[in-house]
Amino acid sequence: MVLAAQFMALLDVFIVNVAAPTVRTELGASGAGLQLVVAGYTIAYAVLLITGARLGHRFGHRRMYLAGLALFTVASLACGLAQSTGQLIGFRLAQGAGAAVMIPQVLSLIQRTFAGEARARALGVYAAVLAGGAAAGQVLGGVLVSADLFGATWRPVFLVNVPVGIALLVLGPRVLPADGPSSRTRGFDLPGLLLLAGAVSLFTVPLVLGQEQDWPLWAWLSLAASAVLLALFASYEKRLARRGGAPLIAPQVLRVPGMGLAVVRIALVMAGNAGLMFVLALHLQGGLGQSALRTGLTFAPGAVLFGVIGLTWRKWPAALQRALVPGGFALTAAGTLALGLALRDGGSGGVGLWAAFAAGGAGMSLAYSPTFTRALATVRPEDAADASGLLTTVLQLGQLSGVAVFGTVFLSRPLGGAQESADALLITAYALAGAALIGAVSGLVRARR
Q1: Assigned domain for 385 exists
Q2: For residue 12, what are the CA distances in angstroms to 7, 135, 160?
Q3: Residue 326 and residue 328: Cα distance in Å, rounded?
Q4: Any domain includes 241
Q5: Is residue 234 a part of any domain in this protein?
């Protein structure tokens, strides 16, 4: 049940991408307005994730899961009924806030409900759902927009959440474990929360808006200020821990074996995943003039393989287990290069494009799923909220960074026609493959025990 809500929330990060042109036409949105419609959800989601984790620890994971789900469902309905760009932006921010309260509780509930081998299997499914929602969002968005259900054009991409959310709200109180008294024992680090929220906000906003505005001075100043606030946050948290206080992120979470490496690897996978989907969607729809449905279906092979591998990798021979992460990154690099080469002549790529995207999806799953599951396998149930907030925030920031960095590489090239767009995509594929090879090197590093 909790994974259905997890999938739904992650779907909404990407499902709006293919609906954006229709939203712009019907609501008359400006370029900046459309960006905030697409990215407002992600900004609120990323900024408030750690807050959501701490609220769950303080007030109860089931209680906050249901509260976040209710806000997300109501906001989804409001988005589907919005009559102006301003309304849609506001409701998207509320939707992101609901997801930020709901999602950190998922891992905590898994940790409390399962133990031993069952917990490892549940974490494997969790990891597959967490990143599989990205590709699935592109596919489902294309299907819903092209279907034009009841003449509603873009609105079903939001309204589809409503019946699912209502069903989960009805089932939740009946099947989720009750909150125990231990969830309220720890203090609330308000200064740390404000410092971290400020740092994440100053980091995410320029990544979302800077590219469209050709990276103005304010964007660079905002990124610099983010680094300053992050340093202040780290210093404050260390002092608070030394005084015996309750830091926003428990120090023992950061000391979990492999957690530091997991942060690096997850950031690289998500940056590559989001960057690839962003530039490929631009090329297929803008450069080649393909429909939203066809563009969405192009992502299907990668999405399917990502999910299948995420669910089955633990059953593979033990001799292969150590090679999964570096091998996954290497396969990602090869698939990305093959994709750029398949499209380099300005054509549709044919079967080669599907094969390349399938290889990339498989490689990303091999790099991501074992990393995520192993990092969390030794996290104590009482620290699950902190770990969930930390890694999900890294996931979101990785995606934003990937779109900003690789999107800038792509958009910095002339894009006058199909061939020029293909040339820009090939250069971006080289950059994406380079990032994947860095991940392969990180995959060879063993965590300290």
Answers
A1: yes
A2: 9, 11, 10
A3: 5
A4: no
A5: no
Highest mean pLDDT among 50-59, 290-299, 424-433: 424-433
The answer on pLDDT for 449 being more than 60 is no
Range of the domain at 85: 2-188+246-442
Look at residue 39 and tell me if it is in a domain.
yes
Quote the number of domains for the chain: 1
Residue 324 has pLDDT above 90, yes or no: yes
Q: How many CB atoms lie within 10 A of CB 234?
A: 14
CATH of the domain at 299: 1.20.1250.20
Cβ of 174: how many Cβ atoms within 10 Å?
7
In angstroms, rounded to a whole number, what is the distance separating the alpha carbons of residues 15 and 26?
Answer: 17
Please tell me the distance from the alpha carbon of residue 221 to that of residue 200, in angstroms, as a whole number: 14
| Greater model confidence, 328 or 278 | 328
| C-alpha–C-alpha distance, residues 178 and 215, integer Å | 48
pLDDT at residue 45 is higher than 50: yes
What ranges make up the beta strands (E) of 108-218?
none
Largest CA distance in the chain: 63
SS3 234: helix
Give the C-alpha separation, 258 to 353, whole Å: 35
